[in-house]
Amino acid sequence: MTTFQGSAKITWGKPDEGSNSSSFYRGVGTSEVSWGKITNPFFFDNNKISFVESPLPFGVKVGESFNLGNLATWNSFIDEGTGIDSVPMKVELDLDGPQEINQTFEFDLELSSTRNGAANGQSGGVYFLPQTSTNETFQYDGQEYSIDLIGFEQFPYFPGDEGNTALLGTRFYTPYESSYAVSLIAQITEVEVPEPAPEPAPEPAPDPSPEPAPEPAPEPAPEPAPDPSPAPIELPVQVGILNEGNYRNTDRVGFTENNFRDVVDTYEFELTKESEVNVTLDQLRQNANVEIVETETDTILFQSTESGTRRETITEILEKGEYSVRVYTEGLEKTRYRLGLQAEEMTEEKDSISTAKNLGILSSQEISELDRIGFGRGVSRDKQDYYKFSLQAKSDISLTLDRLTRNADVEILDSDGRTLLFRSNKGGRTQEKINETLEEGDYYIKVKPRGSAKTNYRLGISAEEVIQEQDDSKPGIDLGVVTPINEIGKRESIGRGQGRRRDTNDYYNFTVTSDNIVTLTLDNLKANADIQLFNSDDEIIWRGQERGRRKEEFTELLEPGNYTVRVFPRGNARTDYRLGITAQWPFIDDYVSPDEAFDFEVVTVDEQRVINEVGQTYASQTGRDQQDWFRFEVSQESDVNIDLRQLRQNLDLILYDDDGTTLLDDSKNRGRQKENINLPLDAGEYYVKVQPKGGARSRYQLTINADEIEPPVEIFNIGDFSQERTSYSNNDRIGLTQSGRNEIDRYFFTLSEDGRVDVTLDELSANANLRLLDSQGSLMFDSRNTRDTPEEVGQDLEAGDYSLEVFPQNSARTSYNLSVEFTPEIIPHDDNPPGEIIGELTQEYVREDQIGFSDGEDYRDQNDYHTFTLDEQKQVEISLDNLRANANVELLDSSGSLLKRSNNRGRQSESITEQLDAGEYRIRVYPQGGARTDYTLTVNTLAADDDGTPPGVDIGVLGSYDVNDRIGFTEGGSRDRADYRQFTLEQDSKFSLNLTNLRQNADVVLYDIDGTLLKRGAKSGRSNEEISMDLEAGDYYVGVLPKGSARTTYNLNMSASPVSGPIPDTDLGTLNFATDPLTGDGVLISSRGSEANYTFDLAETDFVEITLDGLRANANLELYNSDGRQLLGSSSNSGTRAEEIEVFLEADTYLVKVLGQGQATSFDLSVGLG
After folding, report:
1. What are the φ/ψ torsions at residue 353 (nearest 5 degrees)?
2. pLDDT tier at 123, thresholds 50, 70, 90
3. pLDDT of 341 higher than 70
């Protein structure tokens, strides 16, 4: 194979001015050509390209690539119209051989510029070779050769490439105001010589007698051989007006045809309107790229340079004008391709407030919009999309911006389209979210790209109307009176929801009517939740301190009065919970026998507990408390667990059958170990005895729960009762164990008409019971006599489906006879709806009656119905009083569906208060079990009270305010229980409130607009109330509340004056076992320097735990010695998470600092013994 030795150099020909009107250049015929003028004094030197050096003489074989030489460029900001479009590059090749060869080969080097920062983040100029082959050849040793350019070898200043690996391509990129160097790579190739023409056929033999030959015509002179043909020029494909239709074409690029390599395909098109243009290049077999060029200026506007065979895509907004698309390869790549062009006319929708897309009225159903933002350039770039939405009521809105491929932000603007309310501007492609509360009205959404970003997006938005729950603020849900026979339990959840809709407080109130040992428990937690107990003066008397999901428990002697419980999440916790409240009579010899046993009644899977003590000798009584008895029932066979714990000395636990004497099991561990009995028990009645070991005396906690074991059931279908069939009888057995113990015999029957049903269970040899159930399986009536006494149930029933159940008492086994008698036609009574017709409820309705009594024959009055109507929406109050035995009341709608029920125990009054729409309603009064009682039913409507519901009447911006009013009086048929007034502070202020001229006791409370209690004045009697504290700018409300049944006139005076500086220091007092814990609260204003200082004295050396919680924004906690110079501990969690410091301290004085972090917040501070 031939090897060439030689060298090369490059000079530049006369540039092509192209569309430049004032083209300026110099250096033609030299190794450096420059062009362009610069008038801006901040830039220097115009554009240039130079042949800077030739490598050492080369030795190269045919087809082998080699370096012709190195080129250097400088690219600057030249004046418009003074540049060039291309320049001839002349390669002078000097070869040694049998004869010296010196020949010049000419190639075009085209130049383009890019909009600064517009092409994939790169800027500067682009140099490329439209053709890499030439028709110029040379002879060497009898063979014809030519030279082909492969391209430029470069270290990338190249869109999408990074690193130090050299690249080879037919183009290179240069930055502005920077020099750049490349090497020009070529190869020598053999020129294929066409095959010679075939020899002509031989002439035929001469004719023996030929005619005389004509004179031969003179041969024409040979034509001169043509010059070598110039390199073929591939003209651009004319697409035409792209707005009139899409364009698609399949072609190939990078291939060599007729000794010339096609490295660029150009497509020209025109836009008659501003349009969004989409260019796709796909079906690639090797790498190829695509770019959009402005035809007039030959400026590259946009490029796509994906690696490998990945699809190339450009989507941009272009102004009206002429453009071209260039498809090109890099290096020696060659590939087939499919090119697609599409143009869509731009509209001004969503570009401004006036053209915002209206999403309409929001609801809980999310509205979703798909679009893109940031595409285009210059004034045509899509920089913002606007959407409008409306709210019909105060609502929590949830807005999401996602499916981002680049960074975009979102804002919510007020109805004027200018005032910014909320913004989300996270980095990168992170989903943007806004969860906030907005008042009724119109609003705008603004979506905008971050910087030069271009991205698709999905906008989603929904709204939930804000509803104030009863338990969100004090006094909360009324749980009624707590007594030893009235255990209170509540299952709820806390911490759920988002933003301002998050449930952060559940309040409950209860009443203690006599001195009782009260136990509060908070358990069944899935995350950390805390609990506080307030007395009637709104003072915290206990706070839970357990961590994580551990149960909170409080046991203490409480005096008669009203108490409030607050349940709240720790930090961002979300959890279900169970709140339990029980009471025990203190210091008496209680539950001394089975007849006086504490009755747990029916126990279930929910644990029931009693706290008591045994073994004490009381001076006020004779003898010693030697045993405590407890009774419980199991409704069906169950796994029963009984625990006796929290022992200080040794106690025993004993379980008896329903007679109180038959021993079933016991637990008699030593010392203070807990006692436990766990065993399966049949349905029935049982007794537990707790007794001290010897002279032991101890408090204890007794808990019982039962997990039901589903018993086997035998089914009997009686069929229909009617006038044709009126009786049924069956003999069977119950409680036997031949193939598993038979626990229940169930009889199903149907009444085809109303009538009376009498059921008898007799012929018993042991105790068995009887009950009647409705079609839903709910208990209607039962009979549970002792021993083998027959059981009877007689009741008037409506037509429908029912069932009877026969079941043994505990482990009893017996045969029986069941008989059913049906008597059609029930005698009408007022215990069927509609009952007593009240009519339209326009004034107070009072009815005195009886319930539960029998008429001496077959009828017992078990339901009294009263029907009333409302002509408009009203609040209705129903009370059931003057009871001698237990009776309940229900509120039903016109179809009989239950709306609300009041079913207190014993002779307690029943009460229902409900907001009702116009329509018909029913009241049902019924006895509890076999109770019989007189009663007084009162039904009334409550008048609207503008200032009775927080935040109350808005008095505007607070400067000085003074008003005389009254509270606690009955007005318009209902009692005025609260006066609320809302006010606004335009700047951080010193707030002062005085409540004076009281005739009876009234309290005053201060809340922020979210309902967080900031301060309460609750002095006794007619003492004046006052509140003075620093408040941040914002909205607040105050409430004036009567104490109990008090009625009084009052004077309310409030004022606010601008304030700055920290909240004054507060002395929390002395910390010891009697005062544990010390508490405080306050407000930090919107300043990073805002802080609150508290001091306390520690009586004895001990572990101390300091907690800061109840935060609405971030605040930190620090502990110092008394002079504030030595830091002893700190806590700085993020967000609204609680701060805690645990430290061992000696008896001394200490300083606690609550430090604001730039946002206003209220807080609760607690200092307790660890």
Report:
1. -60, -40
2. very low
3. yes
Integer Cα distance of 280 and 250 in angstroms: 12
Amino acid, single-letter form, for residue 353: I
Query: Token pair of 433, please?
Result: 């979210």
- What is the pLDDT, as a whole number, of residue 487? 81
Class of domain 836-942: mainly beta
- What is the average pLDDT across 54-58? 66
**Domains of the chain: which residue ranges?**
3-190, 237-345, 353-465, 477-584, 594-708, 716-824, 836-942, 953-1058, 1066-1169
The CATH number given to 353-465 is: 2.60.120.380
Q: Residue 609 is encoded by which pair of tokens?
A: 């507990």
Is 803 in contact with 747 (CB distance < 8 Å)? yes
Report which of 52, 20, 18 is spatially closest to residue 33, judged by C-alpha positions.
52
Transcribe 753-814 into DSSP letters. S-EEEEEEEE--SS-EEEEEE-TTS-EEEEE--STT--EEEEEEE-SEEEEEEEEESTT--E
Indicate the DSSP class of residue 21.
T
pTM for the model = 0.33
Instruction: Specify the CATH class of 594-708 in words.
Output: mainly beta
Query: In angstroms, rounded to a whole number, what is the distance separating the alpha carbons of residues 338 and 279?
Result: 11
Q: What value does the mean pLDDT take over residues 530-535?
A: 93
Look at strands 575-584 and 25-26 and give their pairing: unpaired
The runs of H, that is alpha helices, within 933-973 are none
| Chain center to CA of 957 | 35
Is the CATH code 2.60.120.380 the one for domain 953-1058? yes
Q: What is the DSSP string of 607-630?
A: -EEEEEEES-B-TTSSSB---EEE
Q: Say whether pLDDT at 606 is over 90.
A: no
CA angle (333 as vertex; 329, 335 as ends), nearest 5: 80
Q: Residue 743 in contact with residue 682, Cβ under 8 Å? A: yes
pLDDT in tens, 330-340: 777 889 999 99
On whether the 716-824 domain is CATH 2.60.120.380, my answer is yes
pLDDT value for 499: 55
CATH topology for 477-584? Answer: Jelly Rolls (2.60.120)
DSSP 262: B
- Window from 95-104, 522-531, 864-873, 896-905 with minimum mean pLDDT: 95-104
Do 1143 and 1104 touch, CB atoms closer than 8 A? Answer: yes
CA distances from 1083 to 530, 601, 988, 1060, 1141 (A): 21, 48, 11, 13, 20
Beta-carbon contacts of 1010 under 8 Å, excluding residues fewer than 6 positions away, are 500, 1112
Quickly count: other Cβ atoms within 10 Å of residue 1134's Cβ: 8
What gap in Å lies between CA 774 and CA 779, rounded to an integer?
7
Q: Which two tokens mark 611?
A: 């706290």
Task: Give the CATH fold of the 1066-1169 domain.
Answer: Jelly Rolls (2.60.120)
Least Cα distance to 170 among 328, 58, 6, 320 occurs for 328
Q: Does the fold of domain 1066-1169 match that of domain 953-1058?
A: yes
Residue with tokens 């490295």: 263
Query: For residue range 755-808, what is the model confidence (pLDDT) as tens digits?
Result: 888 899 999 988 999 989 888 887 787 888 888 888 888 777 888 999 999 998
Name the token pair of 1117: 């906690």
Q: Give which of 946, 945, 1046 is closest to 995, Cα–Cα.
A: 1046
Note the CATH number of domain 237-345.
2.60.120.380
